[in-house]
Design a protein that fits this description.
By secondary structure, the chain is mainly alpha-helical. Helix content is 53%, strand content 0%. The protein folds into two domains: 1-49, no CATH class; 50-112, no CATH class. The model has no long low-confidence stretch (mean pLDDT 80).
């Protein structure tokens, strides 16, 4: 089953953000990195500023509320998440970027 264009755009956006934050290596084996337009491609070593926890937290924050919520959930799982990443993900509990109400309202209206 092929992804619908809307989903493909979101997948491309997720891959672009991940590459910018130094996680492009996750997508290389699956050839999903090809979804990143040429001007948006960034070498992982150029993007890898900060610890992996800091980069993961920043990436989740940039991707929006659903990803922040996932990070918050992961921050409660010391049994599966390394300690250095937990420290950063716990910051998503009370230091995530605010989302304008207009954006939230638009998403709710789309789901009706």
């Amino acid at each position: 089953m092929a992804a619908q264009p809307r989903n493909l755009n979101r997948i491309s956006e997720i891959v672009q953000v991940a590459v910018r934050h130094g996680f492009g290596y996750v997508f290389d084996p699956r050839r999903l990195r090809e979804l990143v337009p040429w001007p948006g491609r960034v070498a992982d070593d150029e993007a890898a500023k900060g610890t992996r926890g800091q980069r993961l937290r920043a990436m989740l924050d940039e991707l929006g509320p659903s990803f922040v919520k996932f990070g918050q959930l992961l921050s409660t799982r010391p049994d599966i998440v390394p300690a250095d990443i937990l420290v950063e993900l716990r910051q998503l509990q009370d230091q995530a970027a605010p989302v304008p109400f207009a954006d939230i309202e638009r998403v709710i209206d789309l789901s009706r």
